[in-house]
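Quick one: structure for this chain?
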Amino acid sequence: MAQTLTKVYIYVVFSTKNRDDLIAPEFEKELFAYIGGVLRKHNSVLIAANGTENHVHLLISQSKNISLSDLLRELKKASSLWIKTKNSVFKNFQWQAGFGAFSIGQSQIETVMNYIAGQKEHHRTELFEDEYRKFLQKYEVDFDEQYFLD
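Got it. Here's what it folds into:
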């Protein structure tokens, strides 16, 4: 085959360091627009984004030209620097060191988009830590509870 053609959907979840409530609602839309721009710079696409004050959920279409680890490192680095410019209160803002990333099939896109859209309602009754643990169990990801979150 003369071309390399891909369509890779990834559902990504990560939190602020120590799950601190630092994602202010007043700049959340702007943050997701910025994240979309970072992804476009790396030939990837932000399909859906939402979250709460302490974590984000992203559905992305990942480029074939960058590894997932490199893409998320660049995304978290750039968005962290951007958040720090919003207000001096955020001068020490950090994302958690790690992330959760799960492959999504084409047939799951609508379901995942709806789940992401309902994040604020969902987290009225469930903590991020519990939700994340459920994701890891659902996708059969082995993890050490000692290093579960930073």
